[in-house]
Amino acid sequence: MAVDLNFCEDGNPGGPPVLLVHAFPTSHALWEHQIEALGKRYRLIRPDLRGFGGSPVPVPPYSMEAFVADLLRLLDRLEIDQVNYVGISMGGMIGQVFALSEPERLQSLALCMTTSSVPEDTPPDQDPAYYISARLFRRAAATVQNEGMEPIVAMCLDRWFRPEFQDSAPARRVAEIIRGNTPKGYMGGVGAMTGFDVTARLSEIVLPTLVMPGALDQGTPISCSEEIASRIPGARLKVVDEARHIAIVEQPQVCNRHLLDHLHNFAA
Question: How far is CA 9 from CA 20, 28, 51, in A?
Fold first, then answer.
C-alpha cells in the first residue's frame, strides 16, 4: 500500500515540475545544492522516500515498485500529470522502474551516479569494499542491526567523496542526513535494491534521458552508466570529473550545468 511521503517544494511554483529523488540512505536534503540553480526556472519537488527523512517508516521489506507507487501518490496529491524525473543512486534505480512502468507520467529522465543492476557479488575486476553488490549491502545491514547508523556514516563518506572532501562542511552535512535515518528504513532500502536488475529492459525507455556518472565513482563506476546510456535510445552521457558517488554535493556546479542543459531541452 502506498504511503503519503514527506516532501519539500522549492523554486518557481509556476515552472515545469522537477522531481528530485535522493540516494540511499539519505533524504530530500541531499539536493540542497541544486535548489538555487534549478529553482530559478523549475518547480522543485523533493520527497523523502518511504523509510527515510520525515516520511513513514513501514516495516520492511520494501520494493522498487512500492517506491514508485509512493511517488505516484505524491504526484496525484499535487495534481501533477507529468514530471521531469531526476534521481541519484537508488533514486536513479527507482527512476528506471518508474520509466518502465509509468512512462506517461514522465517528460524526461535524468539518472545520476546509478546502475541498472545490483549483482550478488562484486565483479572480479572491482573493489568489493566499494562496488555496489548485494553482499556489500548485507554486510552493511548486519552492522546497522548490531550498532545502529553511526558506523554507516564513515563508510558512506569514504565511498561517496574524495579523501580531501570528506571533512568539508558539505560532507559533514551529508553525515548529519545519514544519521537522521533509522535501521528499519535502512533495512527496507537494502531489501529493495537486492536483486534489482532492469538492464535487459532499458531499450523500452523512450524518454529523453541524461545519464550522469562521477568520474571517480567506485560504487557505480562509469561502466554502469555507459551500459545504461548504450541501451536507452538517444540517451546522453555526461561525466562529472573530480567526483565520486555523490557528485551533486562534491561538484554541484558541474552537475547543475548538465541538469539545466538537459531540462532546458526537454522540460515543458
Answer: 10, 10, 19
- One-letter amino acid of 54: G
What confidence category does residue 266 fall into, taking pLDDT thresholds of 50, 70 and 90?
A: confident
pLDDT tens-digit profile of 131-168? 999 999 999 999 999 999 999 999 999 999 999 999 99
Q: What 3-state DSSP class applies to 202?
A: helix
Total H helices, total E strands in the chain: 10, 7
Which residues, 6 or more positions from 255, have their beta carbon under 8 angstroms from its beta carbon?
A: 34, 112, 212, 240, 247, 248
- What residues form DSSP beta bridges with 103? none
Peptide bond into 61 cis (omega under 30): yes
* Side-chain-side CA neighbours of residue 232 (13 Å): 28
Q: Is 1 exposed, middle or buried (0-12, 13-18, 19+ CB in 10 A)?
A: exposed
DSSP conformational letter for 59? P
How does pLDDT run across 90-116, given as a tens digit for each residue? Answer: 999 999 999 999 999 999 999 999 999
CB 211 within 8 A of CB 221: no
pTM strictly above 0.90? yes
Which amino acid, residue 225?
S
